[in-house]
Amino acid sequence: MSDIRSEREIKEVFDLFDRKNNGRVAPEDLGTCLRCLGQNPTVKELDDVMATQNSALDYAAFKAVYMRPREPEPSFEQLVEVFRVSDPHRTGTINKNELQRMLMHIGDKFSLEEFNMLMKKADEQDGEVDYESLIRKMQR
Protein backbone atom coordinates (compact mmCIF):
# COMPACT_ATOMS: atom_id res chain seq x y z
CA MET A 1 0.00 0.00 0.00
CA SER A 2 1.22 3.41 -0.85
CA ASP A 3 1.77 6.15 1.69
CA ILE A 4 3.46 9.50 1.52
CA ARG A 5 7.00 9.43 2.85
CA SER A 6 8.96 12.32 4.25
CA GLU A 7 11.19 14.45 2.07
CA ARG A 8 14.18 12.93 3.89
CA GLU A 9 13.11 9.36 3.08
CA ILE A 10 12.51 10.19 -0.57
CA LYS A 11 15.94 11.82 -0.81
CA GLU A 12 17.63 8.89 0.96
CA VAL A 13 16.21 6.40 -1.54
CA PHE A 14 17.13 8.68 -4.44
CA ASP A 15 20.70 9.02 -3.16
CA LEU A 16 20.98 5.27 -2.62
CA PHE A 17 20.23 4.63 -6.30
CA ASP A 18 22.27 7.58 -7.61
CA ARG A 19 25.02 5.07 -8.37
CA LYS A 20 27.21 7.47 -10.37
CA ASN A 21 26.80 10.29 -7.83
CA ASN A 22 25.69 12.57 -10.64
CA GLY A 23 22.31 13.56 -9.21
CA ARG A 24 20.40 11.09 -11.38
CA VAL A 25 18.69 7.71 -11.06
CA ALA A 26 18.89 5.30 -13.98
CA PRO A 27 15.57 4.37 -15.63
CA GLU A 28 16.05 0.68 -14.81
CA ASP A 29 16.20 1.55 -11.08
CA LEU A 30 12.99 3.58 -10.99
CA GLY A 31 10.69 0.66 -10.12
CA THR A 32 12.94 -0.52 -7.32
CA CYS A 33 13.18 3.03 -5.93
CA LEU A 34 9.42 3.39 -5.87
CA ARG A 35 9.02 -0.02 -4.21
CA CYS A 36 11.48 1.08 -1.51
CA LEU A 37 9.12 3.97 -0.85
CA GLY A 38 6.08 1.71 -0.49
CA GLN A 39 4.66 1.93 -3.99
CA ASN A 40 4.07 -1.01 -6.30
CA PRO A 41 4.24 0.37 -9.84
CA THR A 42 3.16 -1.82 -12.72
CA VAL A 43 5.32 -2.34 -15.79
CA LYS A 44 2.85 -0.20 -17.75
CA GLU A 45 3.10 2.65 -15.24
CA LEU A 46 6.89 2.55 -15.42
CA ASP A 47 6.80 2.41 -19.22
CA ASP A 48 4.44 5.41 -19.29
CA VAL A 49 6.78 7.41 -17.05
CA MET A 50 9.84 6.51 -19.07
CA ALA A 51 8.10 7.38 -22.34
CA THR A 52 8.19 11.00 -21.17
CA GLN A 53 11.81 10.83 -19.95
CA ASN A 54 14.76 10.80 -22.32
CA SER A 55 17.25 9.48 -19.79
CA ALA A 56 17.97 9.17 -16.10
CA LEU A 57 15.79 11.14 -13.69
CA ASP A 58 17.08 14.02 -11.60
CA TYR A 59 15.69 14.46 -8.08
CA ALA A 60 12.87 16.82 -9.10
CA ALA A 61 11.65 14.42 -11.80
CA PHE A 62 11.97 11.44 -9.45
CA LYS A 63 9.99 13.19 -6.72
CA ALA A 64 7.31 14.20 -9.24
CA VAL A 65 6.94 10.55 -10.28
CA TYR A 66 6.67 9.49 -6.64
CA MET A 67 4.04 12.17 -5.86
CA ARG A 68 1.90 11.62 -8.97
CA PRO A 69 -1.71 10.54 -8.50
CA ARG A 70 -2.09 6.78 -8.72
CA GLU A 71 -4.88 4.28 -9.04
CA PRO A 72 -5.85 2.89 -5.65
CA GLU A 73 -4.31 -0.45 -4.75
CA PRO A 74 -6.72 -3.40 -5.00
CA SER A 75 -8.30 -4.41 -1.72
CA PHE A 76 -7.47 -7.63 0.11
CA GLU A 77 -10.86 -9.04 -0.93
CA GLN A 78 -10.29 -8.18 -4.60
CA LEU A 79 -6.92 -9.93 -4.60
CA VAL A 80 -8.33 -13.02 -2.87
CA GLU A 81 -10.98 -13.26 -5.61
CA VAL A 82 -8.26 -13.22 -8.27
CA PHE A 83 -6.52 -16.16 -6.61
CA ARG A 84 -9.77 -18.08 -6.10
CA VAL A 85 -10.09 -18.40 -9.87
CA SER A 86 -7.17 -20.86 -9.65
CA ASP A 87 -8.51 -22.45 -6.44
CA PRO A 88 -11.80 -24.15 -7.44
CA HIS A 89 -11.86 -26.34 -4.29
CA ARG A 90 -11.36 -23.29 -2.00
CA THR A 91 -8.32 -24.75 -0.24
CA GLY A 92 -6.82 -21.30 0.34
CA THR A 93 -3.69 -22.34 -1.54
CA ILE A 94 -2.35 -22.16 -5.05
CA ASN A 95 0.31 -24.37 -6.57
CA LYS A 96 3.67 -22.59 -6.74
CA ASN A 97 4.06 -23.45 -10.44
CA GLU A 98 0.56 -22.12 -11.21
CA LEU A 99 1.35 -18.94 -9.28
CA GLN A 100 4.56 -18.54 -11.25
CA ARG A 101 2.70 -19.06 -14.53
CA MET A 102 0.08 -16.47 -13.55
CA LEU A 103 2.57 -13.85 -12.43
CA MET A 104 5.14 -14.30 -15.18
CA HIS A 105 2.84 -14.72 -18.18
CA ILE A 106 -0.39 -12.79 -17.52
CA GLY A 107 -0.94 -9.04 -17.20
CA ASP A 108 1.96 -7.03 -15.78
CA LYS A 109 4.49 -9.82 -15.96
CA PHE A 110 6.93 -10.51 -13.13
CA SER A 111 10.54 -11.28 -13.94
CA LEU A 112 11.99 -14.51 -12.53
CA GLU A 113 13.93 -12.39 -10.02
CA GLU A 114 10.74 -10.65 -8.86
CA PHE A 115 8.94 -13.98 -8.56
CA ASN A 116 11.77 -15.47 -6.50
CA MET A 117 11.75 -12.41 -4.20
CA LEU A 118 8.01 -12.86 -3.73
CA MET A 119 8.43 -16.54 -2.89
CA LYS A 120 10.78 -15.64 -0.05
CA LYS A 121 7.75 -14.06 1.65
CA ALA A 122 5.38 -16.93 0.84
CA ASP A 123 4.16 -19.60 3.23
CA GLU A 124 4.86 -22.63 1.05
CA GLN A 125 4.36 -26.28 1.95
CA ASP A 126 4.68 -29.14 -0.51
CA GLY A 127 4.61 -26.73 -3.46
CA GLU A 128 1.39 -25.03 -2.30
CA VAL A 129 1.28 -21.33 -1.37
CA ASP A 130 -1.21 -19.88 1.14
CA TYR A 131 -2.40 -16.96 -0.96
CA GLU A 132 -4.28 -15.06 1.75
CA SER A 133 -1.15 -15.01 3.92
CA LEU A 134 0.92 -13.91 0.92
CA ILE A 135 -1.50 -11.08 0.12
CA ARG A 136 -1.40 -9.86 3.73
CA LYS A 137 2.41 -9.80 3.68
CA MET A 138 2.48 -7.95 0.38
CA GLN A 139 0.06 -5.29 1.63
CA ARG A 140 2.16 -4.40 4.69
From TrEMBL:
Source species of the chain: Thecamonas trahens ATCC 50062
Mitochondrion keyword on record: no
Alphabetic keyword roster: Repeat
InterPro entries according to UniProt: CALM/Myosin/TropC-like, EF-hand-dom_pair, EF_hand_dom
Keyword Transmembrane: no
Residues covered by the EF-hand domain: 5-40, 74-109
Lineage: superkingdom: Eukaryota
GO cellular component, one term: myosin II complex
GO function term, MF aspect, one: calcium ion binding
Xref: CDD domains: EFh
Descriptive protein name: Myosin regulatory light chain cdc4
